[in-house]
Design brief:
The chain is an all-alpha fold. It has 2 domains: about 325 residues, no CATH class; about 30 residues, no CATH class. It contains 16 helices and 2 strands. α1 runs antiparallel to α9, α5 packs across α6 and α13 packs antiparallel against α16. The structure holds a DNA duplex (15 and 15 nucleotides). This is Nuclear factor, erythroid 2.
DNA sequence: GACAACTGTCATGGT
DNA sequence: CCACCATGACAGTTG
């Protein structure tokens, strides 16, 4: 018996369609682009020029062997040909052929400036300090961060130290175990067996030990003395200009003795304490610890106030090969300017190779620093994202629980209503329908039918 | 002395 | 092809 047509109930309601209200958990964008930190942009030319001028100034001083404050008068720097005037360790530029452009440029750079900071620093050092300094050379491993100004002063007096007592200090490279040689890309460089004498105007100076990391034991006393003489004096005169490149903050760092410049400390630099740390933070990202060398060129003031970063390996190599322009120019100049710079000097193959290696390494160093910063930022970002997603998951789980409770309640209510509706239905004889034989079903148009189980068909709601 | 963090360098691949 | 950049891997330094 089929009576469904007769029992259309007045109950009509639209079929509810669950609204798919979109994503529960939208895709979280992964960090794809972090702004590269290009903190190593080309420093101001003035800084480089200051560095250069400082170098030249000290060179002048050395020529007269009597460092005085007056030695820093600018008039000294207006007489040009810096490369040619450095006496026994003159740089690569031959005396006779400085390019006119270079002359002009350098002369301009020399005009009218020499910071008073330098003489101030020079005054810092006394012969007593220098003596103590020298004696501390073996102790300073416990004081790896030294002071810029102090070192400058000390380097100013290294001259005295070396000349006066043939100092027993050794270049850091002597002690360096890491060869530091550029693998493959550079031709053989200076060594006791292979002196790089190609640079015109050079006195024969044993620079091999300073660069080639040769065996110190093979050093004769003569070469050792020469080396000491060279390494002390030459470093004394050139350290500043070299550092002007490797550490763009170097010159701005000098005044920091009274006015520390803020910098973004790395986690490591944040561990530093005291004034030395504050100063060393200025160098936190670059060349602070040159691989295998950072403790070797250390100069400690007895009272241990301030420190300077040691020469990096490339700086020492540049010193050894007498590269006649600052590190920052080597590294940061655009290609065209860089190549133009190279054409202004007559460089040996070894010098050219070193300069290109320095440029490559310098750029790669900055790139590595940026890469690591990005990596750290990425990690921080991902951790933050992870925390957010975990919070979101907890929230969604809570929401799901509430929905499940709500659904159970609705189901229960629906069952009650179903039973209630069903109980009101009567057949032709006025008898209630058995729930075992019939069930209520709703059609898509909203009509509700009483369907016997025997002919039930599934109607999608 | 072991260890972790940091750093410079090299090799490699991509632009 | 060259210069440059990004990055993994390695090794040295440092605390």
């Amino acid at each position: 018996m089929c009576s469904t047509a007769n029992y259309v109930l007045p109950l009509r309601r639209p079929c509810e369609v669950a609204a798919t209200s979109g994503k529960l958990c939208g895709g979280v964008p992964m960090p794809t682009n972090f702004p590269g930190v290009r903190s190593h942009g080309a420093p101001q030319d003035t800084e480089m020029d200051v560095a250069w001028q400082e170098l030249m100034a000290i060179t002048e001083l050395q020529e007269f062997e009597v460092p005085t404050e007056n030695s820093y008068e600018t008039t000294q720097y207006q007489t040009m040909e810096p490369m040619a005037s450095v006496g026994e360790y003159g740089m690569a530029q031959p005396h006779s052929e400085p390019p006119a452009a270079c002359e002009l440029r350098t002369a301009e750079a020399y005009n009218g400036f020499y910071s008073e900071e330098v003489p101030t620093c020079h005054r810092l050092g006394t012969s007593t300090e220098t003596m103590e300094q020298t004696n501390m050379s073996g102790v300073n491993q416990g004081h790896r961060r030294t002071n810029a100004c102090l070192t400058q002063g000390l380097r100013g007096h290294m001259q005295w130290t070396v000349h006066g007592q043939n100092a027993h200090t050794r270049s850091g490279d002597d002690l360096e175990s890491d060869s530091g040689l550029s693998l493959g890309s550079s031709p053989p460089l200076a060594s006791p067996d292979n002196p790089v004498g190609g640079a015109p105007g050079y006195q024969s100076v044993d620079i091999g030990m300073a660069y080639s990391d040769g065996e110190p034991d093979s050093m004769t006393e003569h070469t050792r003395r020469s080396h000491l003489h060279y390494s002390a004096d030459y470093q004394n005169h050139t350290h500043s200009y070299l550092h002007s490149g490797a550490h763009p903050a170097y010159f701005s760092a000098q005044p920091i003795l009274s006015q520390p410049q803020p910098s973004t400390p790395t986690p490591r630099s944040m561990k530093h304490q005291g004034s030395a740390a504050a100063l060393s933070d200025l160098y936190n990202d670059s060349a602070m610890s040159s691989r295998g060398s950072s403790h070797l060129n250390m100069y400690i003031k007895p009272q241990g106030s301030i420190s300077t970063p040691p020469l990096s390996r490339d700086e020492r190599r540049a010193l050894a090969l007498k590269i006649p322009f600052p590190m920052d120019k080597i590294i940061n100049l655009p290609v065209d300017d860089f190549n133009e710079l190279l054409t202004q000097y007559t460089l040996t193959d070894a010098q050219l190779a070193l300069v290109r290696d320095i440029r490559r390494r310098g750029k790669n160093k900055v790139a590595a620093q940026n890469c690591r910063k990005r990596k750290l930022e990425s990690i921080i970002h991902l951790e933050r994202e992870l925390n957010q997603l975990q919070a979101q998951r907890e929230h969604l789980a809570q929401e799901r629980l509430e929905f499940q409770r709500s659904l159970a309640f609705v189901k229960c209510r629906l069952t009650d209503l179903y039973t209630q509706v069903f109980s009101h239905l009567r057949d032709e004889d006025g008898q209630p329908y058995s729930t075992d034989e019939y069930s209520l079903q709703q059609t898509p148009d909203g009509k509700i039918y009483l369907v016997p189980h025997t002919m039930q068909k599934r109607e999608p709601c």
